[in-house]
């Protein structure tokens, strides 16, 4: 098996995680433009972005290699919590859009549009901050980074997979 495929199966998180980051930010930007330019948000426009973003966020959370960082990184807990918040917000936005499509009604009215926009932008902020913390773990603490087959910063024995 090639090196890329082997890494994909052993360490999918760094490969998977970039898709929901991009999709959530693009979907939120699209929503913001739509909210500013129109009286209502057509339920079907942008729906696919949010559905794929939600699926990608779920996959990113599921593939997070917590065993690499638990106990050795101050960034792990905020990264994990914000990833969960991102997933929840993304699922809420996608569900809201699906509900609007099912009801054949756009998201309209100042209060609903504002609430929707806040949720959408909150998902984008959460994914960006979570990504920042993930980057801190990799680029500042070398979490999950190997050199000559050995982890640069190996996990602390006994902290593998513990939860608060």
TrEMBL record:
Q: Which UniProt keywords apply?
A: Membrane, Transmembrane, Transmembrane helix
Pfam families in UniProt: DUF2231
Q: Where are the transmembrane segments?
A: 15-35, 47-65, 85-102, 114-133
Q: Which domain of life is it from?
A: Bacteria
Please give the coiled-coil regions recorded for this protein. none
> Is Nucleotidyltransferase included in the keywords of this UniProt record?
no
Q: Identify the residues that the record assigns to the DUF2231 domain, covering every copy.
A: 13-146
Please report the name of this protein according to its UniProt entry.
DUF2231 domain-containing protein
